[in-house]
Each structure stands twice: as structure tokens, then as C-alpha cells.
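Batch manifest, entry 17 of 40.
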Amino acid sequence: MSNSYQKKTSVFRQLHQGPSILVLPNAWDVASAKIFSALGFPAIGTTSSGIANCLGYADGENISLDEMLFMIERIAKAVDLPVTADIEAGYTDDPEKLSRSIASVIGLGVVGINLEDSSASDELVEVDLQTEKLRAVRDAASAVAAELFINARVDVYLFGVGDREQRFRNTIDRAHAYKEAGADCIFIPGVVDAQLIESLVKNISGPINILAVSNTPPVGVLEELGVARVSLGSGPARACATLARRIGRELLAQGSYSSFTQDAMTYEEMNSLFRKR
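Output type: C-alpha cells
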């Protein structure tokens, strides 16, 4: 791997080691990635949902892997920051096929991936299968001397599987199994209670990633709880879609323009993001 790639992977790993929490915005196209980069974020993630919707698909591996990689590549090449890619559940349960896909992903220049442990039908996959997939990812990265950062998603809380005690135990057990299989970080969406987050941090070794939603504790509180990374998922993409809807409603109902003229980036500001330096 190139020195530039190795430097980015090293920087990205260090961002998970503190002392500050990593605040990771998720981009869905080059424009959003450029904006986040210009604001000074140290790294960027992609959002599978945002990319899928942008290209005309519902989330949940309805988009083809090739189309997903097309946008991931555009984003990775557009910024100088480390970029980690959301590849959903890997678009296959076959470890050999996943290994080939991972080689393609690494070839795009991304330093990390998200790999979720649920299917397109929102069902948790068996732990043995998920650990096999994670080992395949790690082996594929090692084969090309890439220190790919694997963010293993645990969807127990996201889908509310089991009672309170079962959810906690299942999450811990899956986290430990995924770490042993080669995961670097455990991503637990669907958790917002501060006390629960603190308990998860104490019972899982290594970095923990929390998804920011409306009632997630603020960044400063998450940092105090020991969370290593907070990501935004599809939130920013959906917020931009909400603005587009607001613009349309204002035009139809009032015939006015405030929703897209007040506090908006100027034409020059937007265009300058894409000028080659």
C-alpha cells in the first residue's frame, strides 16, 4: 500500500484512541463530503442509506455493490481525509465473495468499513456466520498489507431483540466474538440511555461507536462516558431532503423563497469547493 494510504489508516486508528471523541459526519455524495472536509472534520464516513437514496434506491442492499462503490470512490477521491465506508452487510454471506469485495473496497482508498450483523429483512444473522465474515474481511485486508479499520455493527438494540437483560447480554457476547474475529470497533445503534451506554463501554474492550439521533446524549457527555466515536448515519442526508421538501411546500403554498435563500451558501461558496487547487 502507498505511504499516503498507510498514513491515513494510522491517523484514523489514532482518532479512536482519545483523548477526544471522534465526531464522524456521514457523507452521501461529493458535495456533502467537501462541505464536511472544509469545516475541519478529521475524517468522514459514508452512509449507505444516503447513497442508496441519492441514486434512487431504498436502503437495505437494494442498490448494487458496484453502484455503492461508485459513489464511495467519488467521495474518497474528493477529499484528503481518511474515509470509512458503510458497506451494509457486505452484499453477500459468502466469505469468499466478501473477500473479493473487500479487495475492491480497499482499492478505492478507504481506510475502514462498517459491517452490520443483520440481514436485509432486519433479522440478526448468526454469530458464527458474522465472525466468519469478519475474519474474511481481516484476511483480505492483510493479504494486501492494509490495516483496514473494521467497525462491526451490533443491531440487537436497533431491532429490539429480546428483553432488557437479553439485549445487553447478546450485545456483549456479540461484541466479544466480533473483536476476537478481527473487529477494531463495535458500533451499537439504537442506544441512547447514558447509563446503558456507560455499562456497554465498561463491558466491551476497545472503542465503541454510538449513532447520533435526536435524544442521544451530547458529544461532551458521550466523551465523558468513554465513547470513542459518534457518527451521524443518514441523519444529515435526511435533513437535506427535509429542506428540499420545505422549499417545495413554501413555493406551492406561498410562492416565496425564504427557505432556500436565507442563510444559504452562495453560488460562489458552493462552486469554490470543487475548483482544483
